[in-house]
């Protein structure tokens, strides 16, 4: 198991232990002095402390593995995870400068707010699929379409809105739909390091204004992309649902109580492969004139 997996497991366990500790504390309020609850409370406190110490040790090990240029996922100021690149490492102060690779904005995070990079799965990168592909010029990821798969397992992509194509490995491709796409804030979030301060000089203010403008522009474009993708998925879902209903209607068996298709049709058993039973027309019997029984002449019926 890798250090990253171990830290993620410990984070989950620590959350569970803290939740259990809170529940026991609530029970102790209702039953103060209960010996069993008191013992359980002390044990859970020790478990939480041990888990925190172990997690700190694992984070220190992971910090030593983080290098400038590594891709990862990092928490943004909105508390959500985004694909990023490590730009600077300050292990002593637990500060890591990152660039978020979908939006292009930058930030500073702690080691506990970083996790392993996740590229697209093979099932998400088929010919014709829409993805986010790595653009070497600036190191960011942009919307693209997979045109073909090469013999060496690489992917030929065409960047949307640009007359540019590239051949990339799977590790350089992200799924088009990101984890937080449906939760984009209405307005761009300006990180603290880009906010203009009274102590900034003219040059610093102008530089921050340019970066804020670029950040807002990227946010507007991303919002449009997300809305377009939602509409497309909604329309495809509608078409798929219509096709399913049409197939169901075609394959539906005819009810034995359905109205006949013609004036000669009859309501009855259908689908057996046999014709309906036919009956001869019933007529009144006509006896001959000389018909008699024991000398008694029988009447004739018309």
From TrEMBL:
Gene3D superfamilies tied to this protein: 2.30.30.140
Pfam families in alphabetical order: SMN_Tudor, TUDOR
Q: What biological-process terms (Gene Ontology) are attached?
A: mRNA processing
Per the record, which residues fall in region Disordered? 280-302
Q: Which UniProt keywords apply?
A: Coiled coil, Nucleus
Which PROSITE patterns does this chain map to? TUDOR (PS50304)
- Family listed: Belongs to the SMN family.
Q: What is this protein called?
A: Tudor domain-containing protein
């Amino acid at each position: 198991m890798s250090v990253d997996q171990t830290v993620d497991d410990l984070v989950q366990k620590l959350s569970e232990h803290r939740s259990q500790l809170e529940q026991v504390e609530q029970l102790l309020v209702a039953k103060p002095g209960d010996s069993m609850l008191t013992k359980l409370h002390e044990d859970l406190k020790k478990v939480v402390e041990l888990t925190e110490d172990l997690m700190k040790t694992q984070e220190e090990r992971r910090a030593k593995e983080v290098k400038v240029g590594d891709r990862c996922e990092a928490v943004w100021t909105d508390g959500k995870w985004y694909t990023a690149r490590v730009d600077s490492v300050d292990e002593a102060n637990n500060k890591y400068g990152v660039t978020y690779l979908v939006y292009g904005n930058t930030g500073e995070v702690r080691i506990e707010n970083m996790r392993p990079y996740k590229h697209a799965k093979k099932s998400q990168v088929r010919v014709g699929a829409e993805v986010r592909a790595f653009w070497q010029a600036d190191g960011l990821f942009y919307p693209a379409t997979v045109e073909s798969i090469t013999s060496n397992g690489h992917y030929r992509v065409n960047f949307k809105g640009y007359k540019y194509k590239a051949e990339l490995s799977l590790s350089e491709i992200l799924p088009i739909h990101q984890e937080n796409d449906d939760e984009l804030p209405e307005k761009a979030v300006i990180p603290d390091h880009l906010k203009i301060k009274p102590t900034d000089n003219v040059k610093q203010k102008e530089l921050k204004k340019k970066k804020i403008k670029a950040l807002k522009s990227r946010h507007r474009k991303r919002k449009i992309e997300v809305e377009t993708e939602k509409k497309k998925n909604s329309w495809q879902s509608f078409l798929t649902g219509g096709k399913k209903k049409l197939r169901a209607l075609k394959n539906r068996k005819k009810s034995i109580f359905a109205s006949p298709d013609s004036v000669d049709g009859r309501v009855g058993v259908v689908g057996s492969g046999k014709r309906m039973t036919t009956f001869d027309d019933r007529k009144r019997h006509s006896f001959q004139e000389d018909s008699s029984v024991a000398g008694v002449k029988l009447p004739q019926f018309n």
